[in-house]
Specification:
Layout: H1 7-12, E1 32-36, E2 39-42, E3 47-50, H2 53-56, H3 65-77, H4 89-102, E4 108-112, H5 115-132, E5 140-144, H6 153-156, E6 177-179, H7 185-198, E7 202-207, E8 211-212, E9 218-219, H8 222-234, E10 238-242, E11 266-269, E12 281-285, H9 287-291, H10 312-327, H11 330-346, E13 354-360, E14 363-368, H12 374-383, E15 386-387, E16 394-397, H13 405-430
Parallel strand pairs: 3-15, 5-6, 5-7, 7-10, 10-11
Antiparallel strand pairs: 1-2, 2-3, 4-12, 8-9, 11-12, 13-14, 14-16
Helix pairs in contact: 3-10, 4-10, 11-13, 12-13
């Protein structure tokens, strides 16, 4: 489809480098003029219902007035100040509020700017925890097939290379260990055996709780987290939960780990932390972990410090986002969306070529047997007035929690219609 000429697009596009894109062959990105609520306003005048909430961040919808006002007031007072030797109220009170919501056992907050870096910090904390205790051989992080934890060099090493993005870097990444999720007694025994053999080398176990996002919204039972806590305790190994995707209501509870009634030693948060407005992430550690760094020896300090750590504007947005979770019925809205996703996507199970339909909280996923023509599907969704982009073989929805029911129904109906047409064409092609 040919889009009308947009001057800033025509002039700026030759100078930009886009993420996850082979820019020689990819279709041009869609120019956006504005956002509001659950709508994306395009430069050519069209309006889309956003089915993805900007990579799952805009949980309150776009341009929420409470967040906007909080950021505006903070901008007038102090947009940013270095966090080295100085602190400020928005960051310290945000750390307190996060710890109160996480509950006892997660007590110290280290702020960064992105989810990948927050996982890097979690890994660094775990390894240095053992270094500070005199166990320098414990340097490996055990993660799981289907996991995705970021795109930096450290986090690439704990991502499943088979989900598509990081295999080319295998030779330069630090060696880590990866196993199947312990979803039954047999796979738990496999994990137990691996840790028994490598206990003196493993610093921590890392997992996305309840939903492995970039793997195609693969979902697992809370019992998996209980198994991991049990195994980690048995072998005296730290447990890290990566809640960058699942944190702040996406799975139906404020944090996914709460559904298993277990606690990690280290937790990472980002994405919806500021309601999708400004970059901010957090790595939260238990007192047990923090105490390994509490020392008269300066070398025991955590030597990490992002320039924009604890950015005051971003902290103000996060405060406003937490206010909305306190004052508006977000978890009830997620529950209602879950019902609508189950109802609307359920019909996709009858389509030829559909392998599975999965729903958890405000996450709906339709997994196909084979990877679709992604460009064709994206164009079909665009023509239907919705913003939906598949992940590999999976077409998914992660709407804002405030999305009206009719919009959710429109999204699910559009997914059904577009997939029915696409799969029918493919099936016809196979028989001609």
């Amino acid at each position: 489809m040919t889009l009308p000429s947009v001057p800033w697009m025509d002039q700026g596009y030759p100078h930009i480098w886009l993420p996850y894109t082979q820019m020689k062959t990819a279709a041009l990105p869609v120019p956006v003029q504005a956002t509001q609520g659950c709508r994306i306003y395009l430069a050519d005048g069209r309006v889309l219902i956003d089915g993805l909430a900007s990579w799952w961040t805009a949980c309150h919808g776009y341009n929420h007035p409470h967040i906007a006002e909080s950021v505006r007031q903070q901008l007038e007072r102090m947009p940013h100040i270095m966090f080295g030797g100085l602190v400020h109220e928005p960051a310290l009170t945000l750390a307190q509020r996060l710890c109160e919501r996480l509950g006892a056992g997660l007590d110290r907050v280290f702020f960064t700017e992105s989810g990948s870096v927050s996982v890097e910090v979690a890994m660094k904390m775990a390894i240095q925890y053992w270094l500070n205790r005199g166990e320098s051989q414990r340097r490996r992080i055990l993660s799981f097939r289907g996991g995705y934890h970021g795109d930096t060099l450290g986090t690439m090493a704990v991502c499943d290379p088979d989900i598509g993005m990081h295999a080319a870097f295998g030779a330069v990444l630090p060696a880590q260990d990866m196993l199947p999720l312990p979803q039954d007694d047999q796979s738990e025994a496999l994990l137990d055996d691996a840790l028994q053999r490598q206990q003196d080398r493993v610093a921590a176990v890392l997992i996305e709780p309840l939903v492995q996002g970039a793997a195609g919204m693969q979902m697992h039972d809370p019992q998996v987290l209980r198994r991991l806590r049990r195994v980690a305790d048995r072998h005296d190994i730290l447990l890290i939960f990566d809640e960058i995707f699942t944190g702040f209501g996406r799975t139906g509870s404020l944090f996914a780990f709460q559904q298993a009634d277990v606690r990690p030693d280290i937790l990472t948060l980002s994405k919806a932390l500021t309601g999708g407005t400004l970059p901010l992430a957090a790595t939260i550690a238990s007192q047990r972990v923090f105490e390994a760094f509490w020392s008269d020896d300066a070398s025991h300090a955590l030597m990490h410090g992002p320039t924009y750590m604890g950015n005051a504007l971003a902290c103000a947005a996060a405060h406003a986002s937490l206010d909305l979770f306190d004052s508006e019925p977000r978890l009830a809205q997620v529950e209602a969306i879950e019902t609508l996703l189950n109802e609307g996507l359920g019909a996709c199970r009858d389509l030829p070529g559909v392998r599975a339909v999965r729903v958890k909280g405000a996450i709906g996923a339709v997994e196909l047997h084979h990877a679709p023509d992604r460009a064709a599907l994206c164009e079909a969704f665009l023509q239907a007035g919705v913003w939906v982009r598949p992940l590999g073989r999976t077409v998914y929805l992660t709407p804002a929690f405030v999305m009206p029911p009719d919009d959710v129904r429109h999204l699910t109906a559009t997914v059904l219609a577009v997939l029915a047409s696409h799969l029918q064409k493919n099936q016809h092609g196979l028989h001609t």
